[in-house]
Amino acid sequence: MQKFFRENGAKLISALVIFIMLLVCFANADNGEIEEAVTDSKRYKSTTEWMQEINDDTPISSISIPGTHDSAAEYIFPGHFLKTQGMSIADQLTNGFRYLDIRLAVESDKNGDYLGFVHNFGKCRARSNVFSEQIRLDGVLDQIYAFLKAHPSETVLFCVKDEGKNDNAKEFEELLFKSINQNKSSWYLYDTIPKLSRVRGKIVLLRRFSDAMNYGNTGLSFNWNDQGQKTSVDLPYVMYSLNDSDKLWVQDRYKYNVGQKRDAFLDMLRNVQADDHTFTLNFLSTAGDGTFGHPKGYAEVLNGILMTTNLAPQTSYGTIVVDFGTREIAQHIYMSNFQANAE
């Protein structure tokens, strides 16, 4: 045994140091969140019911909607590289966000297969402990149902992507629709952009999976092509057809550096108009152009740019998707739906 440690001691110590560093990185991931600014509540619509005063006849594509990227990645290992949010999904809804970026994979335990939340190679956890249980789809859906029951004027856009590299597409969809069908009346599953009246109190399914089962009504197809290139392009946003009459514009340059991302985001904000038949997704989030990303560091800069960008009143900017969303960011986005100085 002593001979083994003499020959391998250095390797063992190096491995132990790396392991401890990763544990510290994960454990500290929930510290030092981007602070929420103190705001004058008289200036803003309620974060829990801001959709209440939007006209029933308004298509959801014509609403400025705050969204979060990798919405479940509040507690994840290693947090320095993979953590993208500082609030749970339940708290995001309470603080005004209505678009959720849902990344799932087929997981297994002694009771069988289930859909669990992931971000890249990491599993999204319920608490900061590295050994905490993985967040499951059904648990999050229960939270959303409860929110919508308490606030029936609202709707939640639920954009689902199969993130499991080894997943069987049919099994993924069977598990997904098994969960949806348990409360199917709370979902909008059609492939046309609905008016707000049609989806108040409901979850709108946005599909970023293959539809291998060909169920029929599987939501709006949001299967845009990967935009992971690092090189700047003249038009950083791309258009896709949703159906015969509706289209989708997406800017999701997630490998851009901060300067490139700022330019791409503002370019789309100024030049692509969301309307009744045009859904827009404008991602402010990025993993950066380096080998390892640090989403929180990028978000601190980019979210600051958003907060100093004037959003005109009574103007639809579509869905704006951020890392490390705060109440102040959500308010800044959704208040563009209303008249200036609304009381």
Question: Could you explain how this protein is built, in words?
Answer:
The structure is a single chain. The protein is 30% helix and 19% strand. About 8% of the residues have low confidence. Strands 1, 2, 3, 4, 5, 6, 7, 8, 9, 10, 11, 12 and 13 form a 13-stranded mixed sheet that branches. The relative contact order is 0.16. With 343 residues, it is of the alpha/beta class.
Give a summary of the structure in a few sentences.
30% of the residues lie in helices and 19% in strands.
What key phrases describe this protein's structure?
19% strand, 343 residues, 13-stranded mixed β-sheet, alpha/beta, 9 helices
Helix content: 25-40%
Could you give the distance between the termini? 75 Å
Structural category is alpha/beta
Q: What is the succession of H and E elements?
A: HEEHHEEEHEHEHEEEEHEHEH
Instruction: State the shape.
Output: globular
Q: Which spans have pLDDT < 50 for at least 5 consecutive residues?
A: 12-40
- Give the count of helical stretches: 9
Q: What's the Cα radius of gyration?
A: 21 Å
